């Protein structure tokens, strides 16, 4: 009992430090004065807490350029010996990794094409990257955070249909568990990145949707994804917004997935089902410049996409909707059809002020940024900061 009370008291000491780092992550390059305003800290206390965080190798301060009549202040920057996270994004055709500092910035980004697709081979490659990061950063490496194009349930990978994987145990990535492994769905993490540092930073409730092979996404509230009881929420592609005659690989009938991607374009064009629906869709989008049939196919897909988005706007009542992956290209190619289907699908009361649909800002770096943020959330929690200080 006594020890848990002490632990709570210790954690409380780290509350403000954790909040300061959250602000730095949301607004990299922020000054101490602006951080103090944002957190409603008296300037003396802000000076004191940043000095303490400097000693703890969490931040450094550099003189800020003088602007206006305000008193001189400093820019808050990650400490050169501070904690880092290894962010990894595992995708159908490749995987990428980068080291993230406490301001959420990515460093040493690398991309590798899969030499072999089998889970053991792919996970071994990722494990080598973790080992290299650990050799280089030692105890500064506080978490490995993985974004993966897969359905997750309680941090377990249940199915990754684009990789052709069934259930896979991911624990070999960190092996001995000295460094915690965090796992998130790639579309969910891309949504987190949009809400925190991308196109939806002003939105309290934001919906992010990404079209690749099928469609995925997440609802975020104040930058936190709505994950469901087991982290499996957000399978938007498996809503029955599609053609009821079609059976989805997930097992259900009429999934929206089948109406919004390269597979749908191929059906509308009477062409064979593509082996790689994403590059096929890019190819069809390219053809629209001088192929009216391709234009018509994209227009049909844009309508399915927009009608479904309208349905989701009716459900979630978001401030803003961000669209990533192939979504912006589909929309831009058939903007009139998209806009008409969107408005048509909204309940009347939404139409006066319909939630804007905007292009995602992070592009295909969204999942990697989101993985970095997830990892940094973890290693700048009050408990994790107490552990960091203890290790120093
Ligand atoms: Zn489905």
Automatic annotation (TrEMBL):
Pfam family, one: ROK
GO molecular-function terms, A-Z: kinase activity
Entry keywords, A to Z: Kinase, Transferase
Source domain of life: Bacteria
Residues spanning the membrane: none
Signal sequence annotation: none
InterPro entries named in the record: ATPase_NBD, ROK, WH-like_DNA-bd_sf, WH_DNA-bd_sf
Family, similarity comment: Belongs to the ROK (NagC/XylR) family.
Stated name of the protein: Sugar kinase of the NBD/HSP70 family, may contain an N-terminal HTH domain
UniProt source species: Micromonospora inositola
């Amino acid at each position: 009992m006594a020890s848990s009370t002490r632990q709570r008291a210790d954690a409380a000491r780290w509350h403000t430090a954790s909040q300061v780092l959250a602000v730095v992550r949301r607004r990299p390059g922020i000054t101490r004065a602006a951080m103090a305003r944002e957190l409603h800290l008296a300037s003396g206390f802000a000076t004191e807490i940043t000095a303490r965080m400097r000693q703890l190798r969490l931040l450094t301060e550099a003189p800020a350029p003088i602007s206006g009549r305000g008193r001189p202040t400093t820019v808050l920057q990650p400490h050169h010996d501070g904690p880092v996270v290894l962010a990894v994004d595992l995708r159908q055709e490749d995987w990428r990794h980068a080291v993230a500092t406490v301001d959420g910035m990515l460093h040493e980004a690398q991309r590798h094409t899969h030499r072999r697709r089998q889970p053991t081979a792919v996970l071994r490659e990722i494990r080598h990257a973790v080992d290299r990061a650990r050799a280089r950063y030692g105890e500064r490496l506080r978490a490995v955070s993985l974004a993966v194009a897969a359905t997750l349930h309680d941090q377990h990978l249940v199915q990754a249909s684009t990789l052709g994987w069934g259930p896979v145990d991911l624990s070999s990535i960190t092996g001995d568990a000295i460094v915690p492994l965090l796992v998130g769905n790639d579309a969910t993490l891309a949504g987190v990145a949009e809400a925190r540092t991308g196109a939806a930073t002003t939105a309290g409730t934001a919906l992010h949707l990404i079209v690749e092979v099928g469609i995925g996404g997440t609802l975020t509230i104040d930058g936190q994804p709505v994950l469901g009881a087991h982290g499996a929420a957000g399978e938007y592609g498996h809503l029955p917004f599609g053609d009821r005659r079609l059976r989805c690989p997930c097992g259900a009938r009429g999934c929206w997935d089948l109406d919004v991607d390269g597979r749908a374009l191929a059906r509308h064009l009477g062409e064979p089902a593509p082996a790689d629906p994403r590059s096929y869709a890019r190819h069809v989008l390219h053809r629209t410049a001088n192929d009216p049939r391709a234009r018509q196919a994209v227009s049909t897909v844009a309508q399915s996409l927009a009608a479904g988005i309208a349905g989701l706007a009716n459900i979630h009542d978001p401030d803003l909707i961000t669209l990533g992956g192939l979504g912006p290209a589909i929309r831009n190619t058939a903007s009139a059809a998209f806009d008409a289907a969107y408005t048509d699908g909204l309940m009347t009361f939404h139409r006066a002020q319909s939630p804007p649909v905007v292009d995602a800002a992070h592009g295909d770096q969204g999942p990697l940024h989101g993985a970095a943020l997830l990892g940094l959330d973890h290693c700048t929690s009050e408990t994790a900061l107490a552990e960091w200080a203890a290790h120093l």
